[in-house]
Amino acid sequence: MNQVLIIAAIAVVLVVVIVRRFTGEPLNARDLFVPPVVLLGIGVLTMTKEHFSALDLTWIVVSGLIGLALGALRGTTITLLTRDGVLWQRYTVWTVGVWLLSLGTSTVAGMIGSYLGAHQDLRPVQLSIGVSLLGEALVIGGRALSTGYPFAPEKTQRTNSPLLPIAEKGKFRIGR
Questions:
Q1: Following DSSP, what letter does each residue of 64-88 receive, concatenated?
Q2: Which of 153, 58, 63 lies closest to 111, judged by CA?
Q3: Torsion over CA: 110, 114, 118, 119 (sign)
Q4: Which of 10, 25, 83, 121 lies 20 to 30 Å (CA to CA) from residue 89?
């Protein structure tokens, strides 16, 4: 897939996530940790196709630590609330500010790495965003656990099957 299309798709997903979280959404452990892990996996898989130099490895580690720290900082700006007895999260203006700081820092780190001779393909966008989201998730997860309130339950997919209400009541009928 074209790198520009991948970046555009990731940008659209990020905007949707940021808007949803800015308005407030239930804090679900699966939604908190799965996206960073998936993005990290895709990023690492992309990197395995390249050859590393010592400079490349240093650049990956330093920019990864910066991304993790900025994600953790972003995690401190998120408001945790309770609604219906479960945790919710809401981004604040400060959260968006740290997102912008992260974007600027990532751009500058990329420019410095390229100037020094590091290979650009060794730090894919998916890896950068995944590391940043992992930092955010670790801080939010820790803060959430310290509240004593439960995470929101996972969203279930309901179908329009006429048997679903029967199945939920524990009565299974076939036919009339």
A1: HHHHHHHHHHHHHTSEEEEETTEEE
A2: 63
A3: positive
A4: 10
CB 173, CB 166: distance < 8 Å: yes
Give residue-wise pLDDT tens across range 20-31: 888 899 999 998
pTM flag (> 0.90): no
Above 60 in pLDDT, residue 158?
Answer: no
Amino acid residing at 107: T
Answer whether 56's CB lies under 8 Å from 116's CB. Answer: no
Phi and psi (nearest 5°) for 77? -90, -10
Phi-psi region of 41 (alpha: psi -120 to 50; beta: other; left: phi over 0): alpha
Separation CA 10–CA 4 (nearest Å): 10
Q: Give every CB contact of residue 133 below 8 A, 6+ residues apart in sequence.
A: 35, 36, 39, 71
165: enclosing H helix or E strand? helix 164-168
- What the block records as the tokens of 85 is 């007895």
Distance CA 82, CA 24 (A): 11
